[in-house]
């Protein structure tokens, strides 16, 4: 079994990916400092996969801790999820974001080099496209200056990997992952007040928040609300298995490859809200508020390159995402 280092593997996307890796016959080695996750996730993963994954508590900015993981396991590849991800927080605490996201990436790469590991899958974000002029965005859409320190850590991370061809990189630009494992045993665990739309919707529906604020209905879009490309976290998780296989097997690839991961479907805030109410048969209290600073009007993917080259395509519908997100929220409330 191929050992894969999964930094940030206890988090939202990481935990779902660990399940897919175990099911696909890989041996994930989770390395996470638990700054935005909880060891309870391990129980959920174990119930789904039938056994516990390897977990080491550690920090990617700590080279000695990284060395001990590479010494303990015959790691062949790394998936690097570990990062801080709150856009607003990155504006008020930029140094913390650069230290964790860039410092962590540099330490990881140095440790990989010391232990002769070349393959890496990097978690990038659609945020690197900023306010793009033409929709949907393809991978060769030029990247404008980043809108936040968080966004610039993703642009810089991509650039660092691109500049060093020792590393065989698949860089994945995620659009908006939502939903949860259909079992309801793992999902997203936002600490405090959620920043993102889907967890806010489920918490408002559950009565944990008074009402969702729709950030602006005066955008130049069909219903006035902002448009994104939401994809099911299980589809996203599966893309990482495809990326590892691509690194191992593709005969024609360059040292740095980048792919958009989205559905290619444009969905507005109101559309998502109403789909949630219809699918789950529950109203979501909401009001219209002002635009959120830094939000782009619309952003959705042309995901065809991932289909052509990775053989990956998002299969699950918006209804699936919203049903699974609600199922997970109900489990959390009843825990
Ligand atoms: P998450 O916060 O749920 O998971 C990240 C995990 O990394 C957490 O378990 C956290 O404890 C861990 N971590 C953070 N810093 C660490 C460090 N220094 N050392 C070890 N572990 C550390 O986030 P997520 O939503 O699963 O995101 C995973 C990755 O995908 C991140 O790189 C994020 O920037 C990127 N991404 C996420 C989204 C999204 O909407 N969720 C969109 C685009 C890109
Ligand atoms: N929104 C609301 N009310 C809320 C939360 C969000 O109306 O309470 C709206 C936002 O204004 C936006 C849409 O819902 O129009 C989606 O917002 P999210 O915060 O869920 O997602 P973003 O597209 O703003 O950003 C997310 C991640 C970023 C990542 C980006 C990639 O938070 O880290 O996707 O596209 F970079």
Describe the structure in brief.
The chain has helices at residues 12-23, 40-49, 63-72, 87-92, 94-114, 149-163, 197-205, 233-249, 269-280, 304-310, 318-334; strands spanning 3-7, 27-32, 54-57, 75-80, 119-125, 168-174, 176-178, 212-215, 227-228, 230-232, 256-261, 267-268, 286-289. The chain has 335 residues and is of the alpha/beta class. Helix 3 runs parallel beside helix 5, helix 7 crosses helix 11 (318-334) and helix 9 (269-280) packs across helix 11.
Residue stretches low in confidence (pLDDT < 50, at least 5 long) are none
End-to-end separation: 35 Å
Q: Major β-sheet, in short?
A: 7 strands, parallel
**Beta-strand content estimate:** 15-25%
Looking at the structure, the CATH topology of the domain at 3-179 and 231-262 and 302-311 is Rossmann fold
Mean pLDDT: 97
List the ions, cofactors and other small molecules found in this model.
Answer: nicotinamide-adenine-dinucleotide, uridine-5'-diphosphate-4-deoxy-4-fluoro-alpha-D-galactose
The CATH superfamily of the domain at 3-179 and 231-262 and 302-311 is known as NAD(P)-binding Rossmann-like Domain
Question: What is the CATH class of the domain at 3-179 and 231-262 and 302-311?
Answer: Alpha Beta
User: Percentage of helical residues?
Assistant: 40-55%
How would you characterize the overall build of this protein?
This protein is α/β, with parallel strands linked by helices. 41% of the residues lie in helices and 18% in strands. It has a domain at 3-179 and 231-262 and 302-311: 3-Layer(aba) Sandwich (Rossmann fold), CATH 3.40.50.720. It contains 11 helices and 13 strands. Strand 5 (119-125), helix 6 (149-163) and strand 6 form a beta-alpha-beta unit. Residues 7-8, 10-14, 32-37, 59-61, 81-85, 100, 104, 123, 125, 174, 176-177 line the site of nicotinamide-adenine-dinucleotide.
């Amino acid at each position: 079994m191929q050992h894969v280092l999964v930094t940030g593997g206890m988090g939202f996307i990481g935990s779902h990916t660990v399940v897919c890796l175990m099911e696909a016959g890989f041996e994930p080695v989770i390395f996470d400092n638990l700054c935005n996750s909880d060891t309870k996730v391990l129980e959920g993963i174990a119930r789904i996969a039938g056994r516990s994954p390897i977990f080491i508590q550690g920090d990617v900015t700590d080279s000695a801790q990284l060395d001990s993981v590479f010494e303990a396991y015959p790691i062949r590849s790394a998936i690097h999820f570990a990062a801080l991800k709150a856009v607003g927080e990155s504006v008020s605490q930029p140094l913390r974001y650069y230290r964790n996201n860039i410092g962590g990436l540099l330490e990881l790469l140095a440790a990989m080099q010391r232990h002769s590991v070349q393959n890496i899958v990097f978690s990038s974000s659609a945020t690197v496209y900023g306010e793009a002029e033409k929709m949907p965005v393809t991978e060769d859409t030029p990247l404008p200056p980043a809108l936040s320190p968080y966004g610039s850590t993703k642009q810089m991370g991509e650039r660092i990997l691109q500049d060093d061809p020792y590393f065989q990189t698949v860089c994945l630009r995620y659009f908006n992952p939502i939903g949860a494992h259909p079992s309801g045993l793992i999902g997203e665990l936002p600490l405090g007040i959620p920043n993102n739309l889907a967890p806010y919707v489920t918490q408002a529906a559950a009565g944990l928040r008074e009402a969702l604020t729709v950030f602006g209905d005066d955008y130049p879009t069909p219903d006035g609300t902002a448009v994104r490309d939401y994809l099911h976290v299980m589809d996203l998780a599966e893309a990482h298995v495809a990326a590892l296989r691509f690194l191992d097997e593709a005969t024609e690839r360059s040292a740095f490859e980048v792919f958009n991961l989205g559905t290619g479907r444009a969905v507005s805030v109101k559309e998502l809200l109403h789909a949630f109410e219809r699918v789950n048969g529950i109203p979501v209290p909401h009001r219209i508020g002002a635009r959120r600073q830094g939000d782009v009007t619309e952003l959705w993917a042309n995901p065809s390159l991932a289909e052509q080259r990775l053989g990956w395509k998002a299969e699950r519908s918006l209804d699936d995402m919203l049903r699974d997100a609600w199922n997970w929220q109900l489990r959390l409330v009843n825990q």
